[in-house]
Amino acid sequence: MANSYRCAFEVAIHLRRTDVATPASEVGLTLAKRLDAWATGLHVVPLSPVAFASPEAVALYSGEVDNLYRTALGHAPEWRALLDRHGVDGEWQVTQGDVVESLCHVSRWCDLVVVERPQLVPDAPTGWGVVSRTVFGAAAPVVVVPESVKPGTVGARIVVAWNQSREAMLALRGALPLLVRAERVCILEGDLVENPFGLRYLPKFDLRAWLARHRIDAEIHAFSGGKERGAALLDRARKEGADLIVMGAWGHSRITELVLGGTTRHLFQHSDLPLLVAH
């Protein structure tokens, strides 16, 4: 007897606030619909270490956190209504503790984790915030949604930043279910990452053949962004009409990118398109 099991995808969507209709939820549920995925709405009630400075503070803060937790649980019907509006099935979860720890934990069984990137001071350093720490520690690709994103199609027209690095390959593999379903896939092939020792014994990877084996009809274009690679990549993605950028994150150390700048840092700060990233 043939096995009729169909692979199911799971998407976790982080909601920074308890109001469920956010850019992150719109993008996440649009992707969940495209993937026919289970969508978990996740709100984390943070615990502040400062609150445990004295017994009196512990009692007061614990009561406040419990109230916030119960209030957040009460938003489950709103999440259900939003799921119904998008034609997606899923659940509402509320946890207590560290946001990054919760997101990295849920990434162990989810195929995508969707997080919202708040609009901060454009020149503020990026590298140790919730979003970047989640990308660094997650076991699944992370979809970073700028707060300025306008609701619309997501995953229909995808641009992939490719340089054959470990990070780029993880992002490409993580995006595979979306690439298969996309109307158009554009690969921007930058300078490839060479073996630092100049050795030739490693297997060669044929991107065109790999995409063809996965039934993905993609356009591949040479791309050179120069020193301002992040700005050039974002500009090219806009010109291609992309609604999602797939890329590896933190290909260099975060210290290097913070001090000298980098593609990840620029896109995290300035992109108005969702980013599917992996480290």
Give unreliable regions as ranges: 254-261
> How is the biggest beta sheet arranged?
10 strands, mixed
Q: CATH architecture of the largest domain, please?
A: 3-Layer(aba) Sandwich
Overall spatial form? globular
Mean pLDDT: 86
Distance between the termini: 41 Å
Annotated CATH topology of the largest domain: Rossmann fold
CATH C-level class of the largest domain is: Alpha Beta
The total of beta strands comes to: 10
Proportion in helices: 25-40%
**The named CATH superfamily of the largest domain:** HUPs
What are the secondary-structure elements, in order, as H or E? EHEHHEHEHEEHHEHEHEHHE
Describe this protein's structure.
The structure is a single chain. The protein is an alpha/beta fold and 279 residues long. The protein has two domains: 10-146, HUPs (Rossmann fold); 157-274, Rossmann fold (3-Layer(aba) Sandwich). Helix content is 38%, strand content 21%. The chain is built from eleven helices and ten strands. β4, α5 and β5 (142-146) form a beta-alpha-beta unit. α9 (229-239) crosses α11. The radius of gyration is 20 Å and the shape is globular. Mean pLDDT is 86; it is low at 254-261.
